[in-house]
Amino acid sequence: MVMNRKCILRLSRYKNALKRLKALGFVKVFSGNLADAAGVTSSQVRKDFSLFGITGNRRGGYKVDELVLRIREILGKNEIHKVVIIGIGNIGNALLRYKGFETGGIRIVAGFDIDPSRYQPERPVPILPLDEFRSYVESNEIKIGILAVPDVAAHHVSEIMIAAGIKGILNFAPIQLRGADDVVISNINLEVELENLIYFVNVADKSVPALVTEDD
Amino acid sequence: MVMNRKCILRLSRYKNALKRLKALGFVKVFSGNLADAAGVTSSQVRKDFSLFGITGNRRGGYKVDELVLRIREILGKNEIHKVVIIGIGNIGNALLRYKGFETGGIRIVAGFDIDPSRYQPERPVPILPLDEFRSYVESNEIKIGILAVPDVAAHHVSEIMIAAGIKGILNFAPIQLRGADDVVISNINLEVELENLIYFVNVADKSVPALVTEDD
DNA sequence: TAGATTGTTAATCGATTAACAATC
DNA sequence: TAGATTGTTAATCGATTAACAATC
Questions:
Q1: Which of A72, A90, A205 is most worth mutating to test chain B (most B CB atoms within 10 A of its CB)?
Q2: Interface residues 57-86 of B with strand D (CB < 7 Å)
Q3: Residue B81 near residue B144 (C-beta atoms within 8 A)
């Protein structure tokens, strides 16, 4: 019963790999096929599946459609999860307009800001005053929020979010947020990501044998 | 000599923690102080440091200023690394205008797109035709690029980047890029991050004892 | 010196991989 | 059935933590 972040990340990857395999005409797959497509080992695939109680057919592998459905179910992609954004600056605005989500699962429903010049209450995805955040979140039962305010405001705003009942925060502010025990926080830090790239590019540059390609 | 992505990630975190400690008036720190500030164990701190040949003073700990300088040096933050962006849509444009970088290390110097309506060659950070990408990258010796084009174009554009000599790619397209052996690729997938949050929020919701707060 | 902290080695922990019996 | 693949247990690998001798 050990399913950590990495494990769920792989589940997302399997789902995407299966989509590609299906497009290629696969109706059923063996753990080896999926492993190749997702860039892991077949043991890993079977281990992950057994962790989630996903079973296949000995000798017959897994039916693609069933598998996709089961994974989507585990990831909660068969319901709709409403997501709000706080901080409609460059990044927040870009995310508000982002069209890249695969069908199902995620819908960005509103943005919030303290700057009145940014309010746009009439848009299909409205931009509302931060003051209205709590009542909106409560009456719409929002559980997930994206935090995209400047770093100085980040900690304060995260407290507002948690107080309003938000249980999952995707944080774009360059600040290490630490939340309450029942709140999940993922941090995306652009600068840290670039620092990483720079480091490994430099290493590869200096000492020749350094082929790195990573994720998570 | 095992320094992986996680290790470098922690180095960035130490640097940020040290900045906070310095603001609090610390002149020197013990591994325990830094560990607390960065949310790791003191063993981890000392192990990481020994990996990079960072030494302190037995009994006296580490001098904050020296330590910051040394870490910045390892992360390459004492030189300037020029970064380009390909794909000036919502996300690309936001990143082009992003002001959140700490001083030093990273400078976004140009954007590229195929859409002529987006060209802005006269701006301080110009937006140029994709056709000019290769010559720009070669003559300016750019090594790092951010990829922010729609998914259908991502693979093709990544090949253009690599052909031009880019060695590190920060990929925002929801596609698992796999590069050449001497090219480092980091993928940031907004949907996958949200899927993760949704999963753990749901788990926490159903079975009470699930306090998760993660990064990397 | 006595005491506290580093630097490093050994122990532990967890995650990945390999192996193989069960079985379709 | 014979052969191939799953599901799961055992072995391996790597990363984190604990412990402790060196030493300031």
A1: A90
A2: 57-60
A3: yes
Identify whether the C-beta of residue B196 lies closer than 8 Å to the C-beta of residue B115: no
Give me the sheet containing B184-187, strands edge to edge.
Answer: B127-129, B105-113, B80-86, B144-147, B168-171, B184-187
Confidence class for position A208, pLDDT limits 50, 70, 90: very low
Residues across chain B = 216
Say whether the CB atom of B103 is under 7 angstroms from strand D. Answer: no
Amino acid letter at A137? V
List the structure tokens of A61.
């592998």
Both tokens of A167, joined, read 């249980």
* Per-residue pLDDT tens digits for A123-157: 999 999 999 999 999 999 999 999 999 999 999 99
Reduced to 3 states (helix: H, G, I; strand: E, B; else coil), residue B208 is coil
CA–CA gap between residue A98 and residue B2 (Å, rounded): 38
* Phi, psi dihedral angles at B144 (to 5 degrees): -120, 135
Of B183, B186, B191, the CB nearest to A102: B191
d(CA A11, CA A8): 5
Give the best residue of A14, A195, A205 to mutate against chain B (max B CB count within 10 A).
A195
Closest to A94 (Cα-Cα) out of B97, B129, B153, B193? B97
* Burial (0-12, 13-18, 19+ Cβ within 10 Å), A104: middle
Mean pLDDT, rounded, of chain A: 92
Instruction: Kindly give the parts of chain B with pLDDT less than 70.
Output: 1-2, 207-216
**In chain B, what are the domains?**
5-75 (1.10.10.10), 81-192 (3.40.50.720)
Contact B192 A74 (CB under 8 A): no
Calculate the angstrom distance between C1' of C5 and CA of B67.
17
Q: Is any Cβ of chain A less than 8 angstroms from the Cβ of B164?
A: no
- CA dist A146 and A166 (Å) reads 10
Q: How many CB atoms lie within 10 A of CB A58?
A: 6
CB distance from A209 to chain B under 8 Å? no
Rg (alpha carbons) of chain B, rounded to whole number: 20
User: On chain D, which bases lie within 7 A of the protein's CB atoms?
Assistant: 3-9, 14-19, 22-24
Is A172 (CB) below 7 Å from strand D?
no
Question: CA–C1' span, B174 to D9, in Å?
Answer: 36
Neighbours of A77 (CB within 10 A): 23
